[in-house]
Design goal:
Elements (H helix, E strand, L loop, with lengths): L4 E2 L10 H12 L10 H21 L5 E5 L2 H13 L8 E5 L4 H11 L4 E5 L9 H7 L6 E5 L11 H10 L3 E5 L16 E5 L10 E5 L25 H34 L5 E2 L10 E5 L5 H7 L3 E2 L5 H6 L4 H5 L4 H5 L1 E5 L6 H22 L1
Parallel strand pairs: 1-11, 3-4, 3-5, 5-6, 6-7
Antiparallel strand pairs: 2-8, 7-8, 9-10, 10-12
Helix pairs in contact: 1-7, 2-7, 3-4, 7-12
Length: 375
């Protein structure tokens, strides 16, 4: 049976063949614990450090420490909780945005129960942050400001350099969730104090991410135990996962221009083939591998069920798994009926033009059938 056409790149990306090949020896024969002192352990540790260097190189910039984690959710939790633990008494305040990932919003909500002052800022209807609101919010002594580089649901690129500059001017740390933008859109690393990453959003394996921390920024450990990762993140690292992330990062660097041009072509093709659909979020400030669309009268859940030949979503996979409605679309003042009519198409390196044309033809036909039936 022919596999479905995969258009859900924001949920996860296909593992690059080069990544799978690089990981295989570390799963089969080079299986030693990288924290062991014998030769096999030292070889595994060396492979981990090569991978760490490759991820750092793909990030760009100089300095800072890169710690491997189990994924971006852990990295975000660690950044927020670990940095908050060191905030002075007069700066126990965290500012973020209504369209952030649940890993940020749920963590700051929990910190609110621990005595921290939390402010969740609105965004414009195109999903972009209101810098004036950041300036007003940080006029009150603030410890941390958090903003994502590229929104996982609507693809909007936030002006993180400007937000970070406002935070730094007020003496606050800046955390950037760069999961969806890493290697795809420019990341102003020099403006950031902490950056969260995930391997499986860039054709690497699931189960590994990273937290980059600027030199001079101190955070408390989230996990305690063996004192790995410089004493800050306990737990045995998987050389296979680290190597996989490192190879995915190397490919990001190597293929950056080719991947960008390919996504631009797919975007132009998709826009031309989707009459009657409304784009959600800014058309200019966005990553074009994310196409969030709405069409009045269309039931997105029914579309997903009907078009078995295409894998796409109605929004965040994390929200879908929890049964939550889209807090992102709600934050940009969308009525409930429009939220129900919204789909998200994600494409990238391994999506062909022929696949995209076939998928969009099926999508349009199913949407038109729904509308014809309802009329």
């Amino acid at each position: 049976m022919k596999p479905p056409i995969y258009l859900d790149y924001q949920a996860t990306t296909p593992v690059a063949p080069e990544v799978a090949a690089a990981m295989r020896p570390w799963l089969e024969t080079h299986f030693a614990n990288p924290h062991s002192s014998h030769r096999m352990g030292r070889e595994a540790a060396a492979a981990v450090e090569v991978a760490r260097g490759r991820v750092r190189a793909a990030l760009g910039g100089e300095g800072g420490r890169l710690h491997f984690t189990s994924g971006a959710t852990e990295a975000i939790n660690w950044a927020l909780k670990g940095a908050s633990a060191r905030l002075p008494a007069d700066r126990r305040r965290i500012v973020t945005f209504a369209t952030e990932h649940a890993a940020v919003l749920d963590t700051v909500e929990w910190l609110g129960t621990q005595g921290f002052d939390i402010e969740i800022l609105p965004v414009f209807v195109d999903g972009l942050a209101m810098n004036e609101s950041v300036a007003e919010a940080t006029a009150i002594p603030t410890g941390i400001v958090a903003a994502m580089l590229v929104n996982n649901e609507i693809g909007v690129i936030q002006p993180v350099a400007e937000i970070a500059a406002l935070a730094r001017r007020r003496g606050a740390l800046f955390l950037c969730d760069a999961v969806q933008g890493f290697g795809r859109v420019p990341l102003p690393l020099e403006s950031c104090d902490m950056v969260a990453l995930s391997a499986h959003k860039v054709h690497g394996p699931k189960g590994i991410g990273a937290l980059w921390v600027r030199d001079g920024v101190e955070i408390d450990p989230l996990l305690h135990g063996g004192g790995q990762e410089g004493g800050l993140r306990s737990g045995t690292l998987s050389p296979a996962l680290c190597v996989g992330f490192g190879e995915a990062a190397r490919l990001l660097e190597e293929r950056r221009e080719v991947d960008h041009a390919h996504v631009e072509r797919l975007w132009s093709l998709a826009i031309d083939l989707l009459p009657g659909w409304t784009l959600n979020g800014s058309a200019e400030a966005r990553y074009k591998g994310n196409l969030s669309l709405s069409r009045p009268g269309v039931d997105a859940a029914r579309l997903i069920s009907e078009i078995r030949q295409v894998a796409f979503s109605a929004g965040s996979a994390c929200a879908s798994g929890s049964g939550r409605s889209s807090h992102v679309l709600e934050a940009v003042v969308w009525p409930e009926r429009a939220v129900r009519s919204t789909i998200r198409l994600g494409f990238g390196r391994y999506t062909t033009e022929a696949e995209l044309i076939e998928a969009l033809t099926l999508l349009n036909a199913a949407a038109n059938r729904q509308l014809d039936f309802a009329s």
